[in-house]
Amino acid sequence: MTGLAVDAPPSAVAEEASLAALLRCCVREVAGPRGQVWHAEPYVLLRVADTLLRARTYGGLALRFESAPEWLERGSWQPLSTDLLVRLVETELGGVNDEFAVQVGASRNAIAALLTARRDTPPPADPWLASEQGLVFGHPFHPSPKARGGTGWLRYAPEAHASFPLRLLGVRDDVLAEAGDTGPLDDLGPAPHGYTVLPAHPWQLDLLAADLAAPLADGRLIDLGHSTRLAVPTSSVRTVYEPQIDRCLKFSLDVRITNCVRKNSWYELAGAVELTRRLGPVFEDLSARFPGTRWLPEPGYRSADLGNRLLEGLSAIVRASPWSVCRPGVTPLLSGALAIPGSPPAEPVRWWRAYVERVALPVLDAYLSHGVVLEPHLQNVLVGVDAAGLPVEAVFRDMEGTKLVAGRHDLSGLPDRVADALTYDPADGWDRVVYCLMVNHLAEIAASLAGPGSTRELWTAAREVLAGYADSVGRPRPLSDLLAGVPLPAKANLSVRWARSADRAAGYVPVTNPLA
Predict the structure, then answer these.
(1) Alpha carbon distance 147, 262 (integer Å)
(2) Fewer CB atoms inside 10 A, N or C side of the chain?
(3) What is the pTM of this model?
(4) How far apart are CA 147 and CA 110, in angstroms?
(5) Domain identity same for 172 and 104
């Protein structure tokens, strides 16, 4: 974004943010692979559908804009709009996708609505929750970063500083479905004899109303009213923090948010508990080798055995809260919030070196030493800072994105569908690690630290940190290639939206390695 005034109309800010996101996608996925991006100082120029575009940029791989993008019309540069860029993309890519323009427009409208709502509602006092609710513009390389399905979502949106009581259901014990440790859920409220309490997201119940009518009528489910405390939604929308039990709860909304339909599939429920069991020893070793490494276990889930739709739709995965794993005096903050341009620390290189040590080293070692693929993108990592604001801990979360490298773990005792959902082959696992860590995460943090200045000093420091780790483990081939500057894989979000494919079908495009 180029930085409109803070009192600019929400619609204008939403347009600027939407245009920037789509233009980044064009550079990375449309014009770049066709050799149609080049530098002509002070501009980056690109050609889309035989139309020349330009903007002043900074931030290296993160591609931040410091001037309003323009297009060349009859020899004169004119302001570029999101709607025009959508038409150019449609022409360039060919074929028919009647959803694409609608999704881009819906995302822009959602951003405007969120900005309007934020003006009237203060952020949470808790700094961690405030950071969770700060991602108004979403993924910087997604054509529709705030597109979401369903209706009535604004009252539950974290970006609107929402908070709300959960609904409590009673599940008759003969149709209760659960695994692992779900004991904390019992403290949300009493249930009649023969029933067990089950928390539910209010939006989730609205979406499932027709399916719930019969079990509510015959007593397999009963409505216990609302919880006594306000739950606070975190950046993932469907995961909330429940202060009464100091736990995060991951619900199953079954609506499309950006690329994915966000639900807890039955095999992911079983997989979360299985991974928590297996990852305990892994994180014990990582925290011993890399002090400050933390994670948020997901020890259990609870639902109702009322057919697959309600088993998935009513499920709640229990997750530890970050405050419960950070040591006293350490404040957890969402990495995605740290990537938003703001006031850099007094010693940015020292801060950055500490950040890379805390975040990158355990991620790389989890893959190389343990065959575990963490998914350290900006919404899956919390960074614990001390009283001076220096990164001293990294907290990894979300078992849905964590996988095991095929061939390095014995999964023979698991159902095939659960085992398949838990694994990546080695090459795919490495691509996922490198994309999330280097492209999605560190590149964005570096751009925010450097501002309009060069990121070169930061990447030199990062290279020193990573080279030291590589030397300590014998310079395995993946790390040698990374340090040698091989191109990095960047997830192709525009391409998967254009193809109307599931997110798991998303491919990668090569981008410049800033360690080169």
Answers:
(1) 13
(2) C
(3) 0.95
(4) 7
(5) no
d(CA 243, CA 184): 11
The answer to whether 67 and 1 are in contact (CB under 8 A) is no
Residue 331 and residue 321 share a domain:
no
User: Do 283 and 360 lie in a common domain?
Assistant: no
Residue 79 bridge partners (DSSP): 70
CA distances from 323 to 127, 241, 383 (A): 11, 11, 12
Tell me: the pLDDT tens digits for 369-382? 999 999 999 999 99
**Those residues with Cβ within 8 angstroms of residue 361's Cβ, 6 or more apart along the chain or in another chain:** 290, 465, 466, 469
Nearest CA-CA partner of 228 in 171, 188, 169, 183: 188
Region for residue 299 given its phi and psi (left: phi exceeds 0; alpha: psi -120 to 50; beta: otherwise): alpha
Task: Give the rounded distance of the alpha carbon of 479 from its chain centre.
Answer: 25
pLDDT number for residue 184: 98
- Nearby residues of 262 by Cβ (< 8 Å), 6 or more positions away: 236, 237, 238, 252, 253, 254, 255, 256
Confidence label for 6 from pLDDT (cuts 50, 70 and 90): low
Cα 185-191-197 angle, rounded to 5 deg = 30
Q: Is the bond preceding 124 in cis, omega lying within 30 degrees of 0?
A: no
Given a contact cutoff of 8 angstroms between Cβ atoms, the answer to whether 54 and 70 are in contact is yes
Q: Which long-range contacts (CB under 8 A, 24 or more apart) does 497-500 make?
A: 497/100, 497/103, 497/142, 497/143, 497/144, 497/259, 498/89, 498/93, 498/97, 498/100, 500/97, 500/99
Nearest to 185 by CA among 277, 377, 314: 314
Partner residues linked to 149 by β-bridges: none
3 state DSSP class of 151: coil
SS3 220: coil
Are 334 and 441 in a shared domain?
yes
Q: What letter would DSSP give residue 213?
A: H
**3-class SS string, 454-480:** CCHHHHHHHHHHHHHHHHHCCCCHHHH
Greatest alpha-carbon span in the chain: 78
Parent domain of 432? 327-484
Does residue 348 share a domain with residue 308?
Answer: no
What is the token pair recorded at 367? 């893959």
Per-residue pLDDT band for 7 (boundaries 50, 70, 90) equals confident
* Domain's final residue, options 110, 132, 154: 132
DSSP 263-282: ---HHHHHHHHHHHHHHHHH
Q: Are 271 and 418 in contact (CB under 8 A)?
A: yes
